[in-house]
C-alpha cells in the first residue's frame, strides 16, 4: 500500500522510518513528570516515556514545541525558533557540575513546587534560573564540548543570547520598545552591551549547551530502544522573538497573519504573528548556513526523526491583516498573500521541496481547515503525510462519519489535538444527539446510544482509530488514560488548550500519575492489546 513513497523526494527518509503502520503518542513535556522532576517535566523524563512506548508497543513519541517562550508559556509563541526552554532543564543532570552540591540547591524548591497539583506552576522557571545562575558562577571552567557547541551554532546562538539578556535588562519589554540603537542592532551599541553583560550572555549560551546535551542523550536512548522522536515546529514566529529581531527582512512587519472569516469565526482570526517575506527568503533558495529556516531544520534534526509541519497551507498562501487595522475591521481589510492565486501552487511546491532538501527528518503536515485541493496533491507528490482528525472525517453529502478504513493512507490519524477536547469530553459536551447516533452506527456498537463516554465506547473507538488506513496513528496520552481509572471527574478538565482564550488552564495540564507508576499500571496490557490487535506493534 505504501510502496509509492519510495518514488517520492522523501524516499530516503521513508526507508529509514519504514513502510509499515505505526502507533505513537503525544507526551506534552510540561504534563508529564517523574519522581525526580522539579516542578515540571524535564528532558531526562523522556527516557521513562520511551520505556513506556516500548512496553505498550508504540514506536513514535511526539512532543509539543519545546522552544524558549520567555515568560509567556504558550509553546506556540516562542521567543526563538532554535533555543530550547530552560524550564525543562534537569539540574540533577548538568554536564560538568558536581552532583553533591545540586541536592542542597534543590532542597528548598522541591516542597514549594509539588508534583501532586493538577496544574503546572510556571513560577518554577524563574526559581530554576536563579539556581542555575548560582551553579554557573561556581563552575570550574567551560568544557571543550561547550566551546564546540558555541562555534558550531554561532549563527542563531549569539543573537538569541543577546536578545534574552536584552529582554531581562528591559524587564521583558518587546524589542520594538527598546532604544533605537539596540532595536536596530547598531554594532557599536551591541559591542558596548556585550562588554557590560558578558557574563549573563555566556550564561545563556551555557544553558542552551546543557539543554542540547540532555536532549542528545534522549535521542541516543530513543535510537537504542528503536523509538522515533517527533518534534513540533510552529509555522509562525512570534513578533517579539530573537528570529524577527535578527532577521527583520524575512518578515512583513506591517502585517499580522491569521485566518479568513468562515462559519466557525465570523470575523476571521488574527494570530498576530508577522507573515514571512518569502520573496526575500527564496532569493538564495533557502541555501546556506545563514538562512534561519534552513539552519532551524538542521538544528532540530539533532533531536528528532519526524516533525509536525504546522499550517502547511501557509506555505502556499496566508491570510494577512494590516497590523495597524483595528480588530473590528479585520473582516474587510484582510487578504491572501500572495494576492495572485495563480502563483500559490508553484510557490508552495517550491518551499516544500526546499524544506525536504534541507532536512533528514520526515515532515508530517497539519493540513486542517480550508485547504486548496492542489495542496493535498503536492503533499502526496512529495510524500508528506497529512492529518486525519476523526470527528471531522465525514461524508459532507449525507453527513455520515467516515470509517477509518476510508482515511488517507498517507496520513497521521488521531482522535484529538492539543487544541481540542479529548474524545470523551467531545462525546459528552459537543456532539449532537443526531451526530452521536451516526457515530454509534459507524463504530458498530449495539444497544442504546449512551450520553456518557463509557469504557466500552472508549475502548472500541481506540481499536477503530488504530485500524485506520493511515500509516501512523498518534494520540495524545490522555486519550489512552481514559481506558483505566487514572483520569477522574469531568473529561473536559483534560483539555490542553482552548484557542482564542487567555486562561490559567491553557498549557498547564498535568498528568495525575508519575511516569514510574504509569510504567507499572495495569492499563498497559489493554493498550498493548489494542496495538497488537490492529497490527501496529
From TrEMBL:
The protein's superkingdom reads Bacteria
Task: Give the record's GO biological process terms.
Answer: carbohydrate metabolic process
Record's Gene Ontology CC terms? cytoplasm
What the entry lists under SUPFAM superfamilies is as follows: (Trans)glycosidases
Q: Classify the main location.
A: cytoplasm
Note the Gene3D superfamilies from the entry. Answer: Glycosidases
EC number per UniProt: 2.4.1.25
Q: Which UniProt keywords apply?
A: Carbohydrate metabolism, Cytoplasm, Glycosyltransferase, Transferase
Segments crossing the lipid bilayer: none
Q: Which InterPro entries match?
A: GH, Glyco_hydro_77
GO molecular function ontology, one term from the record: 4-alpha-glucanotransferase activity
Q: Where in the cell is it found?
A: Cytoplasm
Name the catalysed reactions. Answer: Transfers a segment of a (1->4)-alpha-D-glucan to a new position in an acceptor, which may be glucose or a (1->4)-alpha-D-glucan
Stored PANTHER family: 4-ALPHA-GLUCANOTRANSFERASE, PTHR32518
Give the family, as the similarity comment puts it: Belongs to the disproportionating enzyme family.
The name under which this protein is listed is 4-alpha-glucanotransferase
User: Which species is listed as the source?
Assistant: Candidatus Nealsonbacteria bacterium CG_4_9_14_0_8_um_filter_35_12
